[in-house]
Amino acid sequence: MFTSARDLGYTSVEEFKEQTARKVRDLRCPEHRQPPRLRFHGVSLRDVSIQMSGCCGKLIALANQAIAGRSPQT
Ligand SMILES: [Zn+2]
Known about the structure:
By secondary structure, this protein is of the alpha+beta class. The protein has helices spanning 13-24, 57-68; strands spanning 37-41, 49-53. The protein has a two-stranded antiparallel ribbon.
């Protein structure tokens, strides 16, 4: 699953990675109690993307929801 950083309104790659990691930090699969794993690709906001993996599709869906949501302070 890939998500565009610029579409989410971030202004730097560092902010994007930090905020994204924070959003899923406490997330666990309701069935397997596993956290999602994130891998970032790209060095600029133009081409950075997330590769997400997890124990099952339910966790991936939850993580996608968490990441797509706006962080409270923005
Ligand atoms: Zn699971």
